[in-house]
Amino acid sequence: MLLKGKQAADFARKPKPSVWAVLAFGEDEGLASDAASSLIKAWTPKSGSMDVTTLDDDSIRKDPSLLFDGLEAVSLLGDPRVIRVRTSGDKIAALLTEAIQKGDAQENYYAARLIIEAGSLQKRSKIRAAAEAAKLTACLQLFADEAGDIESRVKAVLAEAGIEIEPDALSLFIGDLPGHRNLANAEIEKLSLYALNLGRPINVSDIRALSATDIDHNLSAAIRATLNGQPAAVHAALDRLAVAGTSGISILRSLQFETLRMLDAHSKMAAGNSNPGMKLRPPVWQNEWPAYNARLRKWPAKRLMRIMERIYEAEQQAKSGSGSADPVVRVLMNEIARAAEMAG
């Protein structure tokens, strides 16, 4: 059963009772993580709790019984149970497919429910194919938030905490949110904690005081220097990020987000949009547009798609190796910066 976009997000909040397993996936793993949290909340009895066991590729590959014994075991306290699996690609596809097919063959075959979280999955993915074909498993394909969705999510989180925010402050906060869902959630949580017992609505000054950390600045500087063609500045920014302990995968995610934003800009320009910068997320303000437009000229859509391919290859290389992802990321960003330098 395949559901996409809003239908997928709605299902995560209110799943069908007959569905025992869910595969949630998308370009942004944070979306799958949020969907999993929504499912667990929906499945948790109002007067009880949920027993959640989290597994990953490595733990299941080393001991497949962790998956199957976990699905079959009944909680000693009688609480409902969920096995939450975080996977990358098709590393344990055969085991997950087996679990999905057994659970689909007979209702209530397993004692526990199953949630599988993944990043981007191609149509040929074995896990995706199994989830789409199953009747008692939901396959949720999640897409990046639209501006209205982000605003609603921020308002909902703040309202639940009894926090008010002025309209201008809300617009500024949303515009500064990072594209990756997990990072955005962290910023929303930080704002909520800041505003607890504030005694007044959040204003623009509060947002400006919270928005820019050194890591945010260095990460933006690294991505900007990479796409502008400034190799020396790239390495300097990466050195600062390494000292701060920022992971290579996080840097890749930021590079991926900015590449997608530039592709979106090309699309809006091709459609004849008179002010494409303000339609992007976060927006490119008028005083920033000349520099951003110059960057777009270095990177036509075809070359940006090549960057996306190289990001995917670098991530696979980083995750398949036993060492740090940082050298792989550094090589890739240097390569992109050199290419932009030559284009200039």
Structure description:
It is a single chain. The chain has a six-stranded parallel β-sheet with strand order 1-6-2-5-4-3, sandwiched between helices. By secondary structure, the chain is an alpha/beta fold. It is built from 16 helices and six strands. Helix content is 60%, strand content 9%. The protein is globular, with a radius of gyration of 22 Å. The chain has three domains: 2-141, P-loop containing nucleotide triphosphate hydrolases (Rossmann fold), CATH 3.40.50.300; 147-211, Helicase, Ruva Protein, domain 3 (Orthogonal Bundle); 214-343, Zinc Finger, Delta Prime, domain 3 (Up-down Bundle). It catalyses: DNA(n) + a 2'-deoxyribonucleoside 5'-triphosphate = DNA(n+1) + diphosphate. GO terms for molecular function: DNA binding; DNA-directed DNA polymerase activity. Keywords: DNA replication, DNA-directed DNA polymerase, Nucleotidyltransferase, Transferase. Belongs to the DNA polymerase HolA subunit family.
